[in-house]
Amino acid sequence: MYRLRFEEYLAKSFDHLSTIDSLQKEKENYTLTKELFFEFERIKDLEFEDFLNKDREFKKFLSNRILHSELAHVMDEKADYVIQQLFQSYLKNPMLLPDNTIRLIVNDYYVNKSNIKDFRFEFNRIWTSNQKRANKKLIRTVRRKICDYIGGMTDQYAMDQYHKMFGTNSFRRGV
After folding, report:
1. Can you point out the beta strands (E) in 21-60?
2. Do both 160 and 101 map to the same domain?
C-alpha cells in the first residue's frame, strides 16, 4: 500500500516536473519570440529610415532636374502667355466663349433667371448696352466666368483654343 502511494507520489512529481519543464520551455520560447520581434522591429525601423533617405534623395533629384529645370521654366512662361492671351481675347470679345459659359454669365447676371431662350442674343444685348456704362457687376461676372472657363481647360485644349484664335501652331514644336 505504501508502495502504491509512493508510486502515485512519484507520478505526480514527474507530472509536476514535466509541467514545470514545459513552462520553462514556453518561457524560453516567449523570450526568444520577444527578442526576434524586437530585432524585426529594429530592422524594420532601419529599412524605413533607409527608405526615407532614398525618398528624400529622389525628391531632391526631381526638384533639381525636372521641376527647376530650364525647360520647365520655359514651358511655365509659355503657359502664362497663352492663358493671358486667351483671357484678354475673351474679355475683349466675350462672344468667343462657348454657349454654356455665356449661359452661366447671363444666369449669374440675372440671378438664375432660367426663362431666357436665346442666351447669346441676351448676353450681346446687355454686354453692348452696359459696356458703355461700365456695369461693374456684369464685368466682374464676365471676368469670373472667363477665369472659370480657362481654369477648366486642359493644356491641350488651351493650346487648341490659342491656335484657333491666333492661327499659330508654333508652341507645339517645343523649345
Report:
1. none
2. yes
Residue 38: C-alpha distances to residues 12, 14, 41, 42, 145 (Å): 38, 35, 5, 6, 60
Average pLDDT, the chain: 77
| Residues 81 and 164 grouped into a single domain | yes
Question: Do 64 and 93 share a domain, yes or no?
Answer: no
Mean pLDDT of 158-174: 77
Range among 20-34, 98-112, 142-156 with highest mean pLDDT value: 142-156
Cell of 93: 470679345
User: What residue numbers bound the domain in which 64 lies?
Assistant: 1-68
Count: domains in the chain: 2
DSSP label of 38: H
Q: What are phi and psi of 142, to 5 degrees?
A: -65, -45
Q: Give how far Cα 82 sits from Cα of 24, 55, 59, Å.
A: 78, 35, 29
pTM of the model: 0.60
User: Is-contact 105 148, C-beta < 8 A?
Assistant: no
Residues 91 and 168 reside in one and the same domain: yes
78 and 161 in a common domain:
yes
